[in-house]
Amino acid sequence: MNDVSSAPHRPAAGARLLARLACSALLAFGAVQAQTAGPDLRERLAACAACHGERGEGVAGSTYYPHLAGKPAGYLIEQLQAFRDGRRHYWQMVWLTQYMDDAYIAEIAAYYAAQPPHTQAADVGAPALPAAVRERAEQLVHHGDAQAGLPACVACHGATLTGLEPAVPALVGLPQDYIVSQIGSWRDGTRRSKAPDCMAKIAAALSPADIRIVAQYLSHQSPGAHDEPAAAGSLMPPLACGDLPHAQVTP
Amino acid sequence: MIRRIALWSALITLPLLLLGAAAGGVLLLRQGGLAPYRVPSGGAITTAGDAAEGAYLARIGNCLTCHTVRGGTAFAGGRPFRTDYGTLYSTNLTPDPKTGLGDWSAEAFRHAMRHGVSRHGVLYPAFPYANFAHLTDADLDALFAYLRTLPPVEARPPPNDLRWPASWRGALVGWRMLHYRPAPLPPAPADAPPEWLRGRYLVDGLGHCAMCHGTRGAQGSLPAEGYLAGGRIPGQGWYAPPLDARQLARYDVDQLADYLVTGNGEHGAAYGSMAEVVYTSLRHLRADDARAMATYLKSVPAHGGEARPDTGRFLYAAAQPVANPHNGGRLYQDHCASCHGDGGEGRGRDYPPLRGAVSVTAPDPVNAVRLVLYGGMPPTTDGNPRPHSMPPFAGRLSNAEIAAIVTHIRRNWGEQDRPVSAADVAAYYGIRGD
Questions:
Q1: Which of A133, A212, A220, B384 could cross-link B264 (Cys pair, CB 3.0–4.6 Å)?
Q2: C-alpha distance from B115 to closest chain A C-alpha (Å)
Q3: Which residues of A touch B275 (CB under 8 A)?
Q4: Tens of pLDDT, residues A195-228
Q5: Chain B residues closer than 8 Å to A94 by CB
Q6: In what order do the strands lie in the sheet with B161-162?
Q7: Structure pTM?
């Protein structure tokens, strides 16, 4: 087995990671020390590999487990702390993170963030969506629904849906059931993100039928060549999310 | 005629009543008489206690963990405790006058810690007052002084959800009469070094190790003969081993002290509720205190003499184990040997040995089965800041395969011959959380 340093990194992986971490530190996660993952981390994370893949690329054929590779480090830190501190509840994740301190969490997050982003469509083999479903989903994802007070998903998750540094994750490559369950848990309050929790507002504004349609649509998307999260500050989210800078919306 | 019957009944019942009253009186005396129920009122709120020392003692007594819900405000209470009689919740220890200890006197605090009785009535024994009773005045005052430095938080725990009669605090007087025997620590051997004394004080007092490592008697009691003798922890699906010279023979004093603060070592890695104790409490031990505890623990006489613990005490789901078609040895080679070694010898501090390990030698197979089902990640501590982990096998191996592997490791490296069956694995599969 080779270690992380000999992993098939893109040329500027190290620099990219540093830039990302610098942004996180500047923007929101000042308290977290800039971290690089030690070379032997992959072996230490054998438990995680069972459900997320050795490099967080996801496990083939899973209908639920999300991938981790290439997601912004700041986002991953926030999630691991959320499982540990009772803001997310999938119990096997809680089981493995409950006695983990912030320093190790930051190192683990840096490890997965530095892996080549995995943004293959989750449901590659699935049949094409009926035209009407596709249209409605595209409308929501790319333009939102002004009447329902719903901004476009791309406004925060990026034009290619590959996320936004330092705290918005990719929406491509996620299984349909996972997306449905996450939006459901924001609606019933069992997933709580850093306040102000914009995703809770968005989840509340989506109708159950639209949730299913959007999830189905997203699980079919792959981003093509450009699969990295958008650079920090390159988008101004229309709502306040945690510590992310956001557009001033006049009421 | 009627008079004769009345007379005779009186003659018979009166002595019985007297006898009952006398027995009740004796039992009442044995649980400390009436003094515990006289909760001091009034008295000074301020203490001369050393708050900095109190902060350390609160760590070692683990007040924070029991008095905080996951992700909730520190010390504001509300953590649930599952018992055989339902669920109860810990209280708010912040100095809030309405819902916490805001208007408690130092004396009332000492009283609650020593006798398990407060203005709220008799307290449930999930609160380790039997251990805290051993604390010195200075340590209790230090703890109280520290608690008074916390920001006050208004928070009421949820109402307890207990079945009658456990739901009635008065019934706890009966429980105490039957099961609670307060006694000072037994006189120490004349040549006991200060380190041993300090170790015993920490283990039996603040550390309340017996709450998990004691053998439970009837109604959740902790009889003296079960002192540190090991057993299944009530309300949690974990077995805690005995803590005595035999169980801990694998460690020397320094290795044991190191295990307590790092949760890790060449003889084992902490998991389950021990991982929590290390993560929230013991990793903060001062080096000399860790050594003191280790010194004392290694001196506790082995339980049960030469006899091995009785396997039958632990409930195996299947009364008669059925034949298992799987080859546990081969499955072990395929799935486990890469980390735990061909001979169960482990790999240094990275992967614990299975030969002689707690879960392998224990009469109760629950720990081994749950680790194989759900995997593990030892606590992060200064001595083990980047732990290695064990993957979960639930879903990847069948219950029968897991049963075969666990039977294999327990037979070969634990001298536990009783086979574990697929039905046992299925039963433990249902234990969630903690």
A1: B384
A2: 32
A3: 99
A4: 999 999 999 999 999 999 999 999 988 766 668 8
A5: 433
A6: B80-83, B86-89, B161-162
A7: 0.92
